[in-house]
Amino acid sequence: LLAGTTAVAVGAASPAQATPETSLRQIVPAPVKVTPRPGVSYSLTANARIQTQPGSPDARKVGEYAAELLRPATGYRLPVSSGVTPRGVTLLLVGADPKVGKEGYQLDVTPWGVVIRARAAAGLFAGVQTLRQLLPAKIEAKTKQSGPWTVPGGSVLDYPRFGHRGAMLDVARHFFSVDEVKRYVDQIAAYKVNYLHLHLADDQGWRIEIKSWPRLATYGGSIEVGGGKGGYYTQEQYKSLVTYAGSRGITVIPEIDMPGHTNAALASYAELNCDGVAPPLYDGTEVGFSSLCIDKPITYRFVDDVLRELAALTPGPFLHIGGDEAHSTTEPDFKTFMDKVLPLVKKHGKLALGWHEFVKTNPATSAVAQYWGTDTEDADVAAAAARGNKVLLSPASKAYLDMKYDENTELGLDWAGYTDVQDAYDWNPGAYLKGVPESAVRGVEAPLWTETLDESSDVEQMAFPRLPAIAELGWSPQSTHDWTDFSKRLAAQGPRWQAAGVNYYASPQVPWG
Ligand code: TNX
């Protein structure tokens, strides 16, 4: 026994079994396999420690993260040390079933503690998210609460269906500060989302400092929809965001939308316009009126510079080049543009992601198409999938978190229809688009466009409870897909959001307690 732990001698009677407030079956997203042990539970106590895999700094970091999650509400010290004793909370990188892969984990709750086993830190992180949901809801409170902190006994075996489970935040239409984005990162990480796509530039604003073209941010970032003051991230701030997301198991995908959705850039540099005249800044919500100048060489020097600086800020594999709604660019020009820009992404060592329209230009098969249509059929996307391109699914009528829930929703838009939680949940990404089989699907992403959203509470109202629905479609096996069961598990999240101060929409479709 380690000095300082509760001395429970081997062979001694088990600690008293408290009745847990939660069930092993209420986890969102649903795990692959759950095996409850009725009558068994573990209670986290004041002298508990968090032990992590000896010799692994990555496991240690997850342990520190777990401690930060659990300290405020419990008020316990929860020291983190390396060790393997199955007491308290133990995070191990040995002994996991190979099936769990890089992101999966096994979690075992005995009377003496919780052991999480994984093959990589990402799996330990996912296991910690599960543990969090097994503790009473008030664990999410930021101030000290009274226990007991009881976890139901049993085991979980879990790993994701798709390797890409994403959320997008549009920081261009309305600017969101680094702290606001970090807040969203924390919220989505709880549902095992592993990519955050940031829509960094659009007609209404340019939000990332580009040192070789400084007016993009200082002028192009100076407003937002409705005429507010906008803002931008310095490269230092952006790096801190990327690092923070990384500490939550999340890879950031930066998007610069091109060749349309570029008024902020065109307004910042007159020479980027075909007629050499800079348009005014724009604070409305129309789309499709702007285009980079396809025939000017400076356009490609500009894109090259932007992608180079962005690639240098991006540890992840993808740069998103937009490509949607280029209604002011002719089809041949659109192809000319993509044929020149996609190799620049490669030149800077990254893979291209784009809104699905760009697959018309026959990009290299390493490029990923993000489907945002409202139909279950798209010939160009099916043809791209047949050629070998992977597809990231964000069907607007299912996955767009900016769609109104119903006719009474004040925030949001409705062009893709109303989307209540059940609509968001009731589809199968592996069999959604005709000609795009599960093997061609990279995963799912829930985009949140912000024409009507201005602060974190707006973001939360639209994302919760639908973001967890999309996250579950990306993580959980299709065999667990069941609306009634999901709606009950979702109901158990309500008190957690309340305790955490997350502003969710209490949809009448969910049986909140
Ligand atoms: C369409 S979806 C857009 C965005 C809007 C969004 C609003 C897509 C790739 N483009 O420019 O913000 O609808 O829902």
Automatic annotation (TrEMBL):
A molecular-function term among this protein's GO annotations: beta-N-acetylhexosaminidase activity
Gene3D superfamilies membership: Chitobiase/beta-hexosaminidase domain 2-like (3.30.379.10), Glycosidases (3.20.20.80)
Alphabetical keyword list: Glycosidase, Hydrolase, Signal
A GO biological-process term: carbohydrate metabolic process
InterPro entries: Beta_hexosaminidase_sua/sub, GH, Glyco_hydro_20_cat, Hex-like_dom2, HEX_bac_N
EC number(s) stated in the UniProt entry for this protein: 3.2.1.52
Domain Beta-hexosaminidase bacterial type N-terminal: 26-159
Catalytic-site annotation from UniProt: 325 (proton donor)
Matching SUPFAM superfamilies: (Trans)glycosidases, beta-N-acetylhexosaminidase-like domain
Residues of the Glycoside hydrolase family 20 catalytic domain: 162-477
A GO CC term attached to the entry: membrane
Reactions catalysed, as given in the entry: Hydrolysis of terminal non-reducing N-acetyl-D-hexosamine residues in N-acetyl-beta-D-hexosaminides
One Pfam family matching this protein: Glyco_hydro_20
Family: Belongs to the glycosyl hydrolase 20 family.
Name of the protein in question: beta-N-acetylhexosaminidase
Organism: Umezawaea endophytica
